[in-house]
Amino acid sequence: MYYIFVLGPAGSGKSYLTSALVEWLRDHGMDAIAVNLDPAAEWLPYAPDVDIRDYVTVTEVMRKYNLGPNGGLIMAVDLTVNYIPKIRDEIEEYRPNYVIVDTPGQMEIFAFRASGPTIIAGLTSGSKSVAIFLIDSYLATRPGPLLSMFFLALSAALYHRIPQLTVLSKADILPSETIDRIRNWIENPELFVQELKHDIRALHSYIDVEYLIESFIRPLLSELIPVSAITNTGLDELYAAIQRVLAGGEDYLTEEPSEKL
Ligand SMILES: Nc1nc2c(ncn2[C@@H]2O[C@H](COP(=O)(O)OP(=O)(O)O)[C@@H](O)[C@H]2O)c(=O)[nH]1
Ligand SMILES: [Mg+2]
């Protein structure tokens, strides 16, 4: 059983990608289940097989503890830790090949507080896992906002400590030349730095951007995989990258049958 955690800022496309990835895996003959860990989700683009909202919802928590929406979400995510054993039991009953985990909309509450990494470690103990960090195409066309997203991706990886892939989500909104330009930035950071210096003039006078990129961002971001959850473009490339992390490039489809024997 392999875990895939879908992470990214609010609105970056986590729930849509969860939906598309589960469908894609099923269409390719694998048993995949979708787990919703967002206690604030009102509507999801997929039917979750396992759902934290069966145990905790933000509305209940807000009422019970007299909290506003932000306090309610923090409390609800913290309370999720108590339900890990139950959620694990539910997941194990399905005996899936892949468990795709959709995480709370507000990633700072999930990824940057103790409860998020505790939930990830508690769910995956003994299973291989990978995180997919989504960078929204809307924020990737200019070097400045893209750099902020790189930092966010790096910060998330430092907290959860499982291997992480970086995805350019909603790639269908960008022309292919723009995607090529962004990918070129990743492959040639000196180009990225040049354009970044035009984009954020104030930055390079006191921060050594080349050093930051080469030392911190490049090792994490060896590739940026453009994916669309609307057209399904890039899901095959994403799957190949997931394979490289989880199964060392072996074709899992033929190497290891479903545990449902
Ligand atoms: N064009 C386009 N829009 C998308 C895609 N994925 C998600 N969206 C839109 O982005 C919005 C936020 O997506 P959602 O998955 O709910 O984001 P989340 O908060 O990260 O879970 C939704 O209203 C979708 O319509 C995509 O691949 N392409
Ligand atoms: Mg969502």
Q: CATH H level of the domain at 2-136 and 161-169 and 221-254: which superfamily?
A: P-loop containing nucleotide triphosphate hydrolases
Instruction: Count the beta strands.
Output: 7
Distance between the termini: 14 Å
Characterize the main sheet. 7 strands, parallel
Helix content: 40-55%
Family: Belongs to the GPN-loop GTPase family.
GO molecular function, one term: GTP binding
Pfam families: ATP_bind_1
Organism: Ignisphaera aggregans
Word description of this protein:
The chain has helices spanning about 15-25, 60-65, 70-80, 85-95, 105-110, 115-125, 145-160, 175-185, 190-200, 210-220, 235-245, 250-255, and strands spanning about 1-5, 30-35, 50, 100, 130-135, 165-170, 225. By secondary structure, it is of the alpha/beta class. It has a domain at about 1-135 and about 160-170 and about 220-255: P-loop containing nucleotide triphosphate hydrolases (Rossmann fold), CATH 3.40.50. The radius of gyration is 19 Å and the shape is globular. Mean pLDDT is about 90; it is low at about 250-260. The site of magnesium ion has 6 residues, from helix 1. This is GTPase. It comes from Ignisphaera aggregans. Belongs to the GPN-loop GTPase family.
